Amino acid sequence: MKKSNLALAVLCTMATCSWAQTSVTVYGVMDLGVVSEGGGPGGSVLKLSSGVSAGSRLGFRGSEDLGGGLSAKFVIESGIAADTGGLNQGGLTFGRQAFVGLDGGFGSITAGRQYAPHFLAVDDIDPFGTGLAGNSTNLLGTTARMSNALIYTTPSVGGFNGQLAYGFGEIAGDASANRQMGLRLGYSAGPFSGGLAHHHTNDPSGTTAAKNTLISAKYDFNFGWVSLGYNVNDGAPGNDSRDVLVGLSVPAGTGTIMASYVRKDDRSALNRDAAQIGIGYIHNVSKRTALYTSYARIDNDNGAMYTVGNAIEAGSGNRAFNFGVRHRF
């Protein structure tokens, strides 16, 4: 990442900026990988995909010292389809993140499009980091982002920290319609960290809610870290499961070996259980550039059709192999 006065000038065209107290950083990720998928109804497919391990993006983040321990900040981040030159997140210009907020001794409060606390909790215990074949998000229910959201993040006190999130539904006449709410409570002490996270989404009528609650723990041993997550997925009718994630991340030279097991226990009448195993390796060529590879397979029961995806794509079949390169700037 590097500071850019040019970017600051562009962003400040319509406003007066304090150059002495304001900093703006331009950053991004370019990630492209070859993906081989099999086991889908349409047969096998080989493709070049953007954002396999981490979504390709271009972002701007800035902060201003307001004095008295208070500062303002903003982030705008666009998801890029590096294989085609298009935009991800449904074509939204800044679909990954777009928020403004304040930091201080009280913690921080931000407003805009942001990551949901439950998703961040899943990302923390998934050795694949919600990217690559092997990531847990296709089986373990979660919502990545909240639009129209206010999020309060506490300071860390005695190892405890937390987040509260509220997403406005913005439906006239019914404040509960399309409304989202989330929270995350965490604790960290030495090699151990753990917590509780919840996400609640109402449908457009405000009468039905999809709910996910995660209990998680991670312990850093001398050889690497091991994680465990138990997710209660009380979704819309017909979407009810108990999900388990077991993860392992082991440093190996300049890289990292990752492995995970994800089990979905479907509690609906159809009993469509599924289990995924995944293994991968990331080799850091430098501080900013990495090569990666991974493989995962899902065993579906009773007509379940869960697929192996990656950071951006949901995937087309029950098994996938990928390798590629990721560069951060």
From TrEMBL:
InterPro entries recorded: Gram-neg_bact_OMP, Gram_neg_porin_domain, Porin_dom_sf, Porin_Gram-ve, Porin_Neis
GO BP annotations, alphabetical order: monoatomic ion transmembrane transport
Mode of membrane association: Multi-pass membrane protein
Keywords for this protein: Cell outer membrane, Ion transport, Membrane, Porin, Signal, Transmembrane, Transmembrane beta strand, Transport
Subcellular location(s) per record: Cell outer membrane
Annotated signal sequence range: 1-20
Major location category of this protein: membrane
Gene3D superfamilies, sorted: Porin (2.40.160.10)
Domain Porin, first and last residues per copy: 7-302
Keyword Signal: yes
GO molecular function: porin activity
GO cellular component, one term: cell outer membrane
Assembly information from the UniProt record: Homotrimer.
PANTHER family: MAJOR OUTER MEMBRANE PROTEIN P.IA, PROTEIN YDDL-RELATED
Protein's recorded name: Porin
Organism: Noviherbaspirillum saxi
